[in-house]
Every structure is written in structure tokens, then in C-alpha cells.
Amino acid sequence: MTATDRPWLSSYRKGTSTEIKPEFTNALDMFKAAVRRNPDLIAIKYFDGTVSVAELDAQSTALAAGLLANGFQKDDRLAVYLQNVPQFLVAMLATWKAGGVMVSVNPMNRSRELDYMLKDSGATVLLCLENLYSSVAKDVVPGTSVRTVITTSELDYQTRHDPRLFKDIKRERSAGTVDMLELIAKHRGETVPDVTLAPNDVAFLTYTSGTTGVPKGARNTHSNVVFNSQAYRDWIDLSSDEVILGVAPLFHITGLVSGVTVSFLLPATLVLAYRFDPGVMLDCIREHRPTFTVGAITVFIALSNAAGVEPADFASLNKIYSGGAAIAPAIADAFQARFGHQIHNIYGLTETTSPSHAVPLGAATPVDPTSGALSVGVPIFDTVVRIVDENGNELPVGEIGELVTEGPQVVDGYWNKPEETAKSIPNGRLYTGDVGFMDANGWFYIVDRKKDMINASGYKVWPREVEDVLYGHPSVREAAVIGVPDEYRGESVKAFVSLKPGTTATPEEIQAFCKERMAAYKYPRQVEIVDELPKTVTGKILRRELRDTK
């Protein structure tokens, strides 16, 4: 089924066109416009440190000059191996000003993963935290194409050095590296030649999580980035008055677009706090009073359970969106009842440069009465989404199949992987690997990943449905469901749960809770209570790791 004509959307988004006219040809021009419009605006707040738009412009130009002086050329790749720190934005802009491509690297990656990404991308420059260089990158770089290593510290750009995050972090310059702030100081005041960045030039390579195999570098082009930056702004009614809470990791496509490039477009202040810690983030919210954020649902679960949290703490956050992991209706309802704000669902992939679907701001999110799933929204502007069967045939309303997405946000392929591109993105249509359906009103629902389906006695069981029921238990904080071998059924359902602080529950009690609410073949035959569930840095629970340890 194709979702293109959605006249009912106008009742939620009055005055907004269903099409977006690109206002810029590349993402760098978005920032240059911000410099012209509001150079004195605070672009970044980082604990007690601030960086203005004008200063961000000056520092990124100086760093670009330093890159060029060290042999960086157009289309070269610069790998950024950082947490959520101001240096990330400086590096991104500097890379573009030097005509290059930024490669975002997960700071949790260790030697094997870093080695793969540096070699796959062919990066010639690595910019990383000092401690990541000494503990990981130092032994990896010699076998790669990296010619220049620039290091920096999370202690820079601030003086607070909160002990909850920075207690064991010290400055540690390594031989053979260049300090970022020293390089900026050396080239400050220099100009760089104007660079032409075409809409189809790659802005950054963002690597898929690797949960289904070897990570692939998605070619997020400048036109992809400009389109979805504008989509965020127009869909959510964002303005230059916003204060954006950068809770999503900046290396991830969600943080890159909903945080960084949207802040360039508006322009608006972006608040960063190094990495997610519930107590630190809660203090950050109290101090800086952000208005808009996008984060995994696990972030909001953690904040809800933080010591001393009060409804007043979230008073300013009136535009909350969540993506990257399934949201159980019980969690969304409990958050709204307690804090007075709706968590709006948003959905997309690395290959869609963040959103392809979203709930309109202020619209009540429907719940499918059959599966109990919370809708991920409707396709955003200019986006066509089809539900297809295993042969690629479109399915009617209500039928479950794979989501196939096409639109201006879909990448043109994977870096140096033509076969993978042809398989997953034929003719610009992205086969997402996510299974779901569309209802008669155009709302989309994700059932699960194709690979996670459980076959119990010939019946299909989608883990997401079982997890949604588990989240309804008053003691369950987080839940994940997998299939395990069963001599009688072939596979049966196993649930892993962590409990809310101060609560208790036995596996038998949780199993009985599910049994009362589900068909016999669906409820978990095994329940294991754990302290924490394994997650990606973006907050997505890793069922794969649970399968490996079952």
C-alpha cells in the first residue's frame, strides 16, 4: 500500500506544504546563512562553557586551514572519534570547508571496529579524544591510510569537569599527534578557498550498527542532510527560539541531524553533556531549560527513574520525540501522565538520514487494537512508503510486510559496496528490513525486524508484541524477547527483563502476567531477570547479544 495522499494531515499541520523546496544546495551553506543571520547566538552550551555562532565559524575555518596545510584534499575523509563535545561540530564544519567528507565513529568502538571503519572509509585524518587515542587508536592507525592524527580532550571548552563523568579523565598528549586547539590557534585568522559542494556530494559517512552483519557506510549526501534538516524544522514547528538538548549520540544519524544540522539551519542553541548519564542530564535540563529533543525511549525511562526527578524538571521540554527503539504504549502513557508531555514517535534509519516517519506535533498517537503497537507516525514530506511481500508486491491496508521507502532523504548507496547497494536500495527504494503495516488512515506500525521473528509451533511471534505486554507490568523497567530452541515447538519465547528500582517480581509472576494477556503460543515460557540489558550507545536493546548468551 502506498501512502502519498494524506489530506487529514492538514488538520495537524495547518499551513505546511506537503512538499519541501530545498533552501540550500549543501549543509555548509545552512551554517553560513546562520553566521550571516545571527553571529552572536550561542551555538553550543557545554556545561559552563559556550561557543557563539561566530566563534564556531572562526574555529572551524582555522581548523580547515590546518587540515589543508597538512595535505588534506577535496573528497578526503576525516574520521571523528568523539563523544558529544563541541569539537564534533568544529570538526564537521572544518571538514566541509576543506571540501571533505566526515566519517562518524562510535566512541565505544574498540580496535577491531575502528580498524574496519578507518580502512573501509579510507580516512586520511583521525580526530579523536586523547584517551581514545592512547587506549585504542594508537595501535590501529599505523595499519591504515591515516596520515594525520589530531587529538583533543573532553575537558576543553568547559571548566566544571563534573566528577560523575570526568573523575578519572586526565590530559594525556601522545607523541606523533597534533592538539586540536593548538592547531586552531596556529591557523586562526587564515582564510580557506571557497569550496563547491554539490547536492549529491557526500556530507558524512554514517555506519550502520552492524546488528545484522558487517557495518556499512551510508553515503548521506548534502541534499539528504538539507532535506531532513528542513523536515525536522517544518514538521515540529522548530524556530530559532529553541534550545536543543543533544541527548542522542552525535556520531549517530539521529544526533547528527536532529541535533547538529538542525541547529545550523534554525539557527538555535545546542546543549551537549559529553555522554548520557541520567543524573548529569537531569541537571543539564534544569540548568539550560531545553525545549526540543530526540532520544531513544531508554533515555526517557532512565530520566524518569533518576533520583529526585520532578514534573517541573521537564516543564520546558514541550517538543519531545523518540526514535531508534520501540516504544511501548504503557511507557509513553506513564510518562505523559507523570510529566505532562507527550513523547512523539519518530522513525527512520541511517539510510534515511534520520526520519522517514513521524507523529505530527500534538497529534494523539494511535495504538493498533490487534497487536497493541504504538504507531511510528506517518511518512514525512515528499516520502513514499510501501508495504510489500517477499516478492516485492504491494500489500493492501492492514497486511503485514516489509517497509520500502523512497524520498529525498534516502541515501544513494553504501560506501564502496555496490552489491549491497543494489540489494538494499535498488532504484533508490530502500528495503528497510523492518516489518509492519499501514492502517486505513495512513498511520504506520512497525511489528519488528524480519530476522527477529520467532516461529513457535508454526505460529509467528513478533518479539515487539510480547515486549509491549511486559512493559505493562508495574515492576518491569526494560524488556527484550528472543526465540530459543524448543524440542516440542521448534522455538519458544524467552524474555529478559530488568526491574524498576525499589520493586520486586519473580519470573513466575511476570510469566503469569503475560499468560493472562496473550495467546498461549506467545507468552514467554522462560523469564530471566537481569540487572541491565545490553544496548547500543543509542539506546537500542541488542537482542543479538541476548541470543549469543542464552
Key terms for this structure?
25 strands; GMP Synthetase, Chain A, domain 3; 550 residues; single chain; disordered N terminus
Verbal overview:
- With 550 residues, the protein is α/β, with parallel strands linked by helices.
- Among the domains are: 53-197, Rossmann fold; 453-549, GMP Synthetase, Chain A, domain 3.
- 29% of the residues lie in helices and 23% in strands.
- It is built from 16 helices and 25 strands.
- The strands form 5 sheets. It has a 9-stranded mixed β-sheet with strand order 2-1-11-10-12-13-14-15-16, with helices on both faces.
- Helix 2 (53-69) packs across helix 3, helix 2 (53-69) crosses helix 7 and helix 8 crosses helix 9 (253-265).
- The longest helix has 17 residues, at 53-69.
- It is globular.
- The model is unreliable at 1-8 and 10-17 (pLDDT under 50).
- Keywords: Ligase.
- Residues 31-415 form the AMP-dependent synthetase/ligase domain.
- GO terms for molecular function: acid-thiol ligase activity.
- InterPro entries: AMP-bd_C, AMP-bd_C_sf, AMP-binding_CS, AMP-dep_synth/lig_dom, ANL_N_sf, ATP-dep_AMP-bd_enzyme.
- Residues 465-540 form the AMP-binding enzyme C-terminal domain.
What is shown here, in short?
GO terms for molecular function: acid-thiol ligase activity. It contains 16 helices and 25 strands. It is an alpha/beta fold.
Parts with pLDDT < 50 across at least 5 consecutive residues: 1-8, 10-17
Mean pLDDT: 90
Q: Helical proportion? A: 25-40%
Strand order of the largest sheet: 2-1-11-10-12-13-14-15-16
Strand segment tally: 25
Indicate the structural class: alpha/beta
Q: Would you state the CATH class of the domain at 53-197? A: Alpha Beta
Taking the sheet with the most strands, its summary is: 9 strands, mixed
Q: What name does the CATH topology of the domain at 53-197 carry?
A: Rossmann fold
Number of helices: 16
What overall form do the CA principal axes indicate?
A: globular
What portion of the residues fall into strands of 2 or more residues? Answer: 15-25%
CATH structural architecture of the domain at 53-197: 3-Layer(aba) Sandwich
